[in-house]
């Protein structure tokens, strides 16, 4: 479970990028963050992960206040997985080596077991286990980035634009992989997406952000029908 309460954060002392952000995500829920370029979506994920520490407000993961805990400690102890917007696999390493990096804090035996589980969950990775990540397609890379973040069995997963640059068919494969994580491992997923309607289709709830705060929130199905969301993302009515 993720609880964000009135969080203020920024990269320099003078400028607040998050200006009182409040939102929640429950266990086994996919929650999507929508909003224009530069509104603070990636900054929010980086703040939850602990790359940035909030100036004010509270961040709780699984009921525990982690507002001032830096990223490496959250990933190690807090059961947090983070897939950043860019550069999310090591191209020069094989698929297996990428997964081993994700399992850095596990014992060798636990790593082997988890790689087997993830290979079963994502057969596309099983077929390419010893190939360099550089040779994967865009969609395969996204699935590898997801699997790497899942290595330590996080209870919370932060995904920054997992479908960026993918064709509609591959986008569906990546989204199916995300749904499997929620359904099979009960992971709480907070996902930033530009493909709003496709993302809402697999989400339970969503938040529309504007200028560092929540502008609109609701069940995913409701937001898909909301005229304001349609205006923003589909250029008006579609029927
Ligand atoms: N490392 C950084 N240092 C300073 N300012 C930053 C940094 N990263 C982002 N910003 C600024 O913070 C604001 C929010 O950026 P952020 O990356 O969170 O937006 P976003 O909503 O994820 O946008 P996009 O949809 O383009 O990915 C922008 O004005 C951006 O210029
Ligand atoms: Mg971003």
Automatic annotation (TrEMBL):
Residues 2-236 form the ABC transporter domain. Keywords: Amino-acid transport, ATP-binding, Cell membrane, Membrane, Nucleotide-binding, Transport. One of its GO terms (molecular function) is ATP binding. Gene3D superfamilies: P-loop containing nucleotide triphosphate hydrolases (3.40.50.300). It comes from the Bacteria. Pfam families: ABC_tran. PROSITE patterns: ABC_TRANSPORTER_2 (PS50893). InterPro entries: AAA+_ATPase, ABC_transporter-like_ATP-bd, BCAA_Transport_ATP-bd_LivF, P-loop_NTPase. SMART domains: AAA. Belongs to the ABC transporter superfamily. This is ABC transporter ATP-binding protein.
């Amino acid at each position: 479970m993720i609880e964000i309460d009135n969080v203020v954060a920024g990269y320099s002392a003078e400028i607040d990028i998050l200006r009182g952000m409040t939102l929640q995500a429950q266990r086994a829920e996919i929650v999507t963050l929508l909003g224009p370029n530069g509104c603070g979506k990636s900054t929010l994920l980086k703040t939850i992960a602990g790359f940035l520490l909030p100036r004010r407000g509270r961040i709780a993961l699984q009921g525990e206040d982690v507002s001032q805990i830096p990223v490496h400690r959250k990933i190690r102890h807090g059961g947090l997985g983070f897939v950043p917007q860019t550069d999310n696999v090591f191209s020069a390493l094989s698929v297996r080596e990428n997964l081993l990096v994700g399992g850095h804090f596990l014992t060798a035996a636990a790593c082997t077991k988890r790689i087997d589980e993830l290979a079963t969950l994502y057969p596309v990775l099983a077929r390419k286990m010893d190939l360099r990540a550089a040779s994967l397609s865009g969609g395969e890379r996204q699935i590898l980035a997801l699997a790497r973040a899942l290595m330590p069995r996080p209870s919370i997963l932060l995904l920054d634009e997992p479908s960026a640059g993918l064709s509609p068919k591959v986008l569906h494969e990546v989204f199916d992989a995300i749904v499997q994580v929620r359904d099979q491992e009960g992971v709480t997923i907070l996902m930033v997406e530009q493909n709003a309607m496709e993302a809402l289709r697999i989400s339970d709830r969503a938040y529309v952000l504007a200028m560092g705060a929540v502008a609109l929130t609701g069940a995913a199905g409701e937001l898909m029908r909301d005229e304001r969301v349609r205006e923003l993302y589909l250029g008006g009515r579609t029927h």
